Amino acid sequence: AHGLAYDRKGVLWTADISAGALASIDPNGKVTSHFTSSGNEPLQGPNFVAIDGKDRVVLSDPCLGELIFYDPAAKKIVSTHLFDLKTEGGPNGFAFNADGTELYVVTENTVLLCPKAKVKPKSATDNIAGLYRIKWSNDGANPGFGERTLIQTGIGLFGDGMAFDVEGNLYVVVDTVKNVALEESRVMVLRMGESELVPFVAFKKDTLIANVAFGRGPLGETTMYAALLAIPPFTTPDKRGVAKFEVGIAGQPLL
User: Fold this and answer.
1) In this structure, is the dihedral angle defined by the CA atoms of residues 117, 121, 124 and 128, taken in order, positive or negative?
2) Which of 58, 138, 142, 153 can pair with 130 through a Cys bridge, CB separation 3.0 to 4.6 Å?
3) For residues 76 and 107, is the Cβ–Cβ distance under 8 A?
4) Cα 129 from Cα 174, distance rounded (Å)
């Protein structure tokens, strides 16, 4: 399992990368695979999931360059949203803003991560990761993806997870690589009302952040937790784990 997200019924949704599927686990432990294709191509690297205001699911597949919008009630894919893998990278992490009217998405260079992809960036070292904002509709005849706006491009080689705080600041994982070696893995912040990411927390060379999330209850609502990933050749298995740091602002509830 890669991305994980609960809906309002207590169903846990996951990007099942080993099965190449969007899957769910209900409160009784029943596992269901919902689809293995975007409708255009078989899934290659399902990665991240989030739930919208109507308990519908968004899934990213950076290797396909697609976001996939799925309605569990109708048991169908509603629509997909495409990125240009060569110039924009593939969509990885994403998050809804507080009122669910905007979906923020970060992309990554897919050359090293998606060997089977039909379309790839020209170079494995092109810093084409970017942050985008997509208008989102929960109602009407055309729910889901709307107009996409580029916020900032060239932020690194890989963009990964992200999280909002209650003040509307967005925390985004960005990794930079130099000479095919990890240079820095950092959390950057898009402050509410601004248009440029600024550095917040950085790990050097041998530690790779995959995702971030705020704590709840005894874990601290103003504490951010970072999942650390082992992925050769950038990091070794002993670097897996979780790091935490104090933000000073509570995290936005996920639903």
Assistant:
1) negative
2) 153
3) no
4) 8
pLDDT (tens, 9 = 90+) of the chain, 255 residues, equals 889 999 999 999 999 999 999 999 999 999 999 999 998 889 999 999 999 999 999 999 999 999 999 999 999 999 999 999 999 999 999 999 999 999 999 999 999 888 877 788 888 888 999 999 999 998 777 889 999 999 999 999 999 999 999 999 999 999 998 877 788 999 999 999 999 999 999 988 789 999 999 999 999 999 999 999 988 778 888 889 999 999 999 999 887
Separation between Cα atoms, residue 186 and residue 203, nearest integer Å: 6
How many Å apart are CA 187 and CA 164, to the nearest integer?
12
Nearest one of 228, 231, 230, 226 to 251, comparing CA atoms: 226
Q: And the tokens for 176?
A: 């930079």
CA-CA distance, 98 to 148, in Å (whole number)? 18
Greatest alpha-carbon pair distance for the chain in Å reads: 50
Within 13 Å and on the Cβ side, how many CA atoms surround 11? 21
